[in-house]
Amino acid sequence: MHNFVFGIFPYIALTIMILGSIARYERDPFTWKTKSSQMLRTRQFVIGSVLFHVGVLAIFAGHVVGLLTPKELWYAFGISSGTKQMIAIVAGGAAGIAALAGGAILLHRRLTDPRIKANSSFGDNAVMIILIVQLVLGLATIPLALGHLDGSEMLKFMAWAQGILSFKAGSAGYISDVHPIFKLHIFLGLVIFVMVPFTRLAHVISGVAVPFRYLLGRTGYQIVRSRRGVRAAPKDVAPVRATRQPVAARSVASAPAE
Fold first, then answer.
1. Cα 96 to Cα 85: distance, rounded to the nearest angstrom
2. Which tens digits make up the pLDDT trace of 217-248?
3. Residue 236 lies in a domain
4. Long-range own/partner contacts, residues 200-208 (CB < 8 A, 24 or more apart)
């Protein structure tokens, strides 16, 4: 099972994310959106959104650079494994706390505000809850990492990530003896990759692709309004009826009788 989850499942997750995202964009591009609730209520949105997105982006960049940069390059810049481990703990911890605080704010307003709750789907809430769980797992690895300040555990994860991307056989063996919290954190991260094409997480790809699209000549944007799922007006609200009474007829009707 370990070899499947950490040796085969990463390729399944990446394949579903890439091909699923392409299929969704080609089949139904107008569903490719963030489904932002800012227009429903701005209170708590700005601070929660800024904390969450800045924290998540910092964490993502740290994982990409930290795991995929060869250790020889770090050593060439005079950064030892222990120093790199401490940088990851401090920077990752700060970003994780910021993202967790922002995510808690966004989830609170989504679950407690009646308007936002009514316009939130099961998938919207599930995505936010899963991301918060992932952030908690990531922060839970910090005490474990403090017990390996020599960077030995970090080197295992680097070898695994680089082995997966280079299609190296037996890459799952690099992390066979790490703590289960690390393994759960990695597994949930792969599950999040699988969720991207089927949820609002698809807009994450836009954050990388859209700048290049505009640089290549696209200008402006298009707003699409869907009528799917439109709810009927409450019974106690009378519909507005337009009158077609001609102006001349109204004038005659309002003139005094002779």
1. 16
2. 555 555 666 666 555 545 554 554 444 444 44
3. no
4. 200/33, 200/34, 200/35, 200/123, 200/124, 200/127, 201/127, 202/21, 202/24, 202/25, 202/32, 203/32, 203/33, 203/34, 205/21, 206/32
221 or 9: which carries more pLDDT confidence?
9
- Residue 21: φ, ψ to 5°: -65, -40
Nearest of 184, 166, 165, 164 to residue 174 by alpha carbon: 164
Residue 121 zone, left/alpha/beta (φ > 0; ψ -120 to 50; rest): beta
Instruction: Please report whether residue 30 resides in a domain.
Output: yes
Domain of 47 in residue numbering reads as: 2-215
pLDDT digits (tens, 9 = 90+) for 117-167: 777 788 888 999 999 999 999 999 999 999 888 888 999 999 999 999 999
* Whole-number pLDDT of residue 11: 97
| C-alpha span between 105 and 44 (Å, rounded) | 7
In a domain, 203, yes or no: yes
Looking up tokens 């005094």 gives 256
Burial of 220 (0-12, 13-18, 19+ CB in 10 A): exposed
Report angle CA 138, 143, 144 to the nearest 5 degrees: 85
Percent above pLDDT 90 for the chain: 52
Nearest to 67, CA basis, from 164, 176, 181:
164
